[in-house]
């Protein structure tokens, strides 16, 4: 076509040199030259007719006397097909030029709509075709200022609207694009969006009889940022999903680092789903950081979820990294469960101590005084620790304390303990002793003697008995036998007070008799039968054996037999 237009221009110039015309003819010739020059410039800029004819098999109508395939441009230099008007190629191009001019002017006033798409996802560019749909001739899609369409929807050649021809430029979208004419509105679906797909897209709808429609879209391709990295206060990367373990009162200092993203992402911190910090604090190139300070963590912060999010679009989920806070916690409670109010001496008991609130579970130890008790059995559950102590209390344990201590070895120097004072019951422990001022071997008739009965018992003894040679002694002042509390006093004793003494104590647990304590009473010798007169007869010069039984303590060394005449 370009060669044809060049030849036409040469013919016109030769004809003008031969013509001799008046002034009005010269004006007409000048306007014709200007017109042909414009057509030539347009033909130089457009090489599309041959290309488009090859790609789309677009054919123009036959015009009178040599009208054949014709092409024209419209809407910012887009190539379209025109029909010959029976005036040859020159007239066809003239008509096409008119279409170009009107298309450019019209497209300049088409409003551009912004559409966002995420790299790797799909997007649908709408083309809201107005009625009548059955009159649609062709739908062309263009990008930026290109005059060559990248996609066409063709229903020419009397084709049914349900059986169109689709064509997608392989170097642009290829099989990634598909035009959906029957959707409301009609859309060009583009799959697997690439970052270089960003640009201005135009949809042009040609009708058989109605006016052409145009729509413009500014497609922005959003590039998601990389997955966030979490750094501790020393810049070391944290892996896994656990943060800590921390102790109560510790500060949490963590930094979220995000690389890349278009547009620049917002980096923010959420704790348990609530926004706590959305200020980007550091920006170096395509690296964005947000440092979170969470001061003095408390027990109720355990298992809190710290989440860093990087987001630069509402079209996709934000990139995020979450950590769950783990903590070492001291015990909250420790108690001995249902300790017995009293225990019988020398009987085995099992007592349980329970502690809760520690993380990890508390370690429980038992003490009696300062001595650790080791006969224990532990039961560890999710929320508590139980320890069972098995022990046999003795009478000496009465009044002592058992301590249960719960501690978390990961929390230095902090523990809880509870104490239980033992009440050990037992029958009386009874011991009889001679008065401390007396010497057992120096007691003689006429002396005063006293005994002390020492009783240890729980509960307190309620009755005390005294025994002499197994016989109960009662208080008798006339007999000079006096009982006073836990003492027995014998005044001006005689030899008859000698013998075995004991005391007996009684409480609710039983009766106990003390040891037997012998009492020795020294006295002068006496005849055993001094109250009797024995007559012995004998002949003269007869030898007579006379027995004299003498009682004395200590035993007598000699005995005399005075002769008493009748």
From TrEMBL:
The keyword Metal-binding does not apply. This is Hemicentin-2 isoform X6. PANTHER family: SIDESTEP II, ISOFORM A, SIDESTEP PROTEIN. GO terms for cellular component: membrane. It is found in: Membrane. It is a single-pass membrane protein. Gene3D superfamilies: Immunoglobulins. Residues 119-220, 225-324, 331-408, 427-514 form the Ig-like domain. Keywords: Disulfide bond, Membrane, Transmembrane, Transmembrane helix. The keyword Transferase does not apply. It comes from the Eukaryota. It comes from Drosophila albomicans. The gene is LOC117578388.
């Amino acid at each position: 076509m370009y060669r044809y237009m060049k030849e036409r221009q040469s013919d016109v110039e030769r004809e003008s040199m031969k013509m001799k015309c008046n002034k009005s003819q010269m004006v007409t010739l000048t306007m014709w030259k200007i017109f042909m020059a414009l057509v030539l410039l347009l033909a130089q800029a457009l090489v599309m007719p041959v290309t488009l004819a090859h790609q789309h098999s677009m054919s123009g109508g036959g015009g009178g006397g040599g009208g054949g395939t014709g092409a024209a441009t419209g809407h910012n230099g887009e190539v379209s097909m025109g029909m010959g008007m029976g005036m040859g190629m020159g007239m066809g191009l003239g008509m096409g030029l008119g279409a170009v001019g009107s298309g450019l002017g019209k497209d300049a006033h088409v409003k551009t709509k912004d559409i966002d798409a995420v790299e790797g996802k799909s997007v649908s560019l709408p083309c809201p075709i107005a009625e009548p749909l059955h009159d649609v001739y062709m739908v062309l899609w263009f990008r930026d200022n290109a005059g060559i369409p990248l996609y066409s929807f063709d229903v020419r050649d009397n084709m049914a609207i349900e059986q169109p021809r689709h064509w997608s430029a392989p170097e642009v979208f290829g099989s990634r694009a598909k035009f959906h004419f029957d959707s409301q509105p009609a859309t060009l679906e583009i799959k697997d969006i690439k970052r270089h797909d960003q640009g201005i897209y135009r949809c042009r709808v040609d009708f058989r009889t109605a006016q052409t429609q145009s729509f413009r879209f500014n497609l922005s391709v959003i590039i998601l940022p990389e997955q966030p990295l979490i750094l501790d206060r020393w810049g070391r990367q944290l892996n896994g999903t656990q943060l800590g373990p921390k102790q109560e009162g510790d500060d949490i200092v963590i930094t979220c680092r995000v690389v890349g993203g278009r547009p620049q992402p917002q980096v923010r911190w959420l704790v348990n789903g609530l926004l706590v910090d959305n200020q980007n604090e550091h920006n170096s190139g395509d690296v964005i950081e947000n440092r979170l300070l969470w001061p003095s963590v408390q027990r109720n912060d355990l298992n809190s979820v710290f989440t860093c999010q990087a987001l630069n679009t509402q079209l996709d989920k934000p990139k995020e990294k979450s950590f769950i806070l783990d903590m070492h916690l001291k015990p909250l409670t420790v108690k001995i469960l249902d300790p017995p109010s009293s225990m019988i001496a020398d009987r085995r008991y099992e007592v349980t101590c329970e502690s809760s609130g520690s993380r990890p579970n508390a370690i429980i130890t038992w003490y009696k005084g300062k001595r650790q008790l080791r006969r224990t059995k532990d039961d560890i559950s999710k929320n508590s620790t139980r320890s069972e102590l098995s022990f046999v209390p003795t009478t000496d344990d009465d009044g002592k304390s058992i301590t249960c201590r719960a501690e978390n070895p990961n929390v230095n120097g902090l523990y809880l303990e509870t104490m239980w004072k033992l009440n050990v019951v037992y029958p009386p422990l009874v011991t009889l002793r001679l008065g401390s001022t007396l010497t057992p071997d120096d007691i003689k008739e006429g002396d005063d003697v006293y005994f002390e009965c020492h009783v240890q018992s729980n509960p307190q003894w309620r009755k005390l008995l005294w025994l002499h040679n197994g016989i109960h002694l009662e208080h008798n002042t006339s007999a000079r036998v006096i009982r006073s509390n836990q003492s027995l006093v014998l005044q001006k004793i005689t030899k008859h007070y000698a013998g075995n003494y004991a005391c007996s104590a009684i409480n609710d647990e039983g009766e106990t008799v003390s040891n037997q304590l012998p009492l020795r009473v020294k006295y002068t010798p006496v005849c055993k039968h001094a109250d009797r007169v024995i007559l012995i007869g004998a002949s003269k010069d007869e030898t007579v054996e006379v027995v004299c039984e003498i009682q004395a303590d200590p035993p007598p060394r000699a005995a005399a037999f005075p002769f008493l005449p009748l």
